[in-house]
């Protein structure tokens, strides 16, 4: 699947599995890294912007600059996800309609903008995997900044049992979207982002918890969730359903 495979191998596997359970985390990682794209990242959309200046992949500084750009792109995509989720829920957008809105929004792909393949970047990343600055940048990209994720009143109210219920609901909704005959796009990243928005909107409406609240709660409860077999099973099914949804 590309860079996410290499990055997740460098982080605690249980923590990564928990992070993948949060709606915001899934789409943030998917869009920022291009993990759901097929083949080269250069096949992705560039949102109409001119290509970024090529980075020197032989240097740590070059790798860090790309990781930092990916992190900035992830932050922007999270906000775009929030906006599209709200619109999808208020207007009852179908997956096909959400894909169309995603295309209009123009979510940036740092690797595609730099005309880099994921294979090339993964190879460069492996050369600096023991560097503290690179490790910190990867951890931030994966949704675990040094200062942690800020807890909110809504996130503190989400118990382990409630998080299991939420993720069961998300799984059911993703299953419905995966079964759609018309997904609205053949581009895997477009479908992944649009599907996340549709499900995030429905999840927030039902549980009164925004994606960032769920993500914060998952991080806060990661110890208990890591040993919860039901939650682990749901996360595995979520990943399998997402793979089916995007046709990978």
The shape, in one word, is globular
Beta-strand content bin: under 5%
Taking all residues together, what is the mean pLDDT? 76
Main beta-sheet annotation: none
How many β strands by DSSP? 0
Count the domains: 1
Compressed to H and E, one letter per element, the order equals: HHHHHHHHHHHHHH
SS-based class: mainly alpha
Helical run tally? 14
Rounded to the nearest angstrom, the radius of gyration is: 17 Å
Span between N and C termini? 9 Å
**Sequence stretches where pLDDT stays below 50 over 5 or more residues:** 1-51
Helix content bin: 55-70%
Molecular structure report:
- With 248 residues, the protein is mostly helical.
- The protein has one domain (1-248).
- It is built from 14 helices and no strands.
- The chain has helices at 3-10, 13-19, 23-33, 60-90, 95-105, 110-113, 118-127, 132-141, 153-156, 160-178, 188-207, 211-220, 222-226, 229-246.
- Helix 3 (23-33) runs antiparallel to helix 11 (188-207), helix 4 (60-90) crosses helix 11 (188-207) and helix 10 (160-178) runs parallel beside helix 14.
- The longest helix is centred in the N-terminal third of the chain and has 31 residues, at 60-90.
- Residues 1-51 have low confidence and may be disordered.
């Amino acid at each position: 699947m590309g860079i996410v495979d290499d990055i997740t191998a460098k982080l605690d596997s249980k923590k990564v599995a928990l992070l993948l359970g949060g709606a915001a985390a899934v789409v943030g990682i998917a869009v920022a890294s291009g993990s759901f794209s097929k083949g080269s990242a250069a096949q992705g959309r560039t949102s109409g912007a001119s290509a970024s200046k090529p980075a020197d992949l032989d240097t740590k500084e070059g790798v860090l600059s790309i990781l930092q750009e990916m992190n900035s792109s992830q932050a922007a995509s999270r906000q775009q996800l929030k906006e599209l989720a709200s619109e999808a829920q208020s207007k009852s957008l179908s997956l096909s309609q959400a894909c169309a809105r995603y295309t209009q929004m123009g979510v940036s792909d740092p690797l595609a903008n730099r005309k880099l393949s994921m294979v090339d970047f993964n190879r460069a990343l492996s050369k600096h995997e023991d560097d503290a600055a690179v490790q910190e940048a990867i951890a931030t990209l994966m949704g675990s900044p040094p200062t942690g994720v800020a807890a909110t009143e809504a996130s503190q109210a989400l118990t382990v049992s409630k998080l299991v219920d939420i993720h069961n609901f998300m799984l059911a909704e993703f299953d419905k979207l995966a079964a759609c005959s018309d997904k609205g796009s053949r581009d895997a990243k477009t479908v992944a982002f649009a599907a996340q928005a549709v499900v995030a909107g429905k999840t927030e409406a039902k549980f009164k918890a925004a994606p960032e609240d769920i993500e914060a709660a998952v991080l806060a409860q990661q110890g208990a969730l890591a040993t919860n077999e039901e939650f682990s099973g749901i996360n595995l099914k979520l990943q399998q359903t997402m793979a089916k949804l995007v046709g990978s």
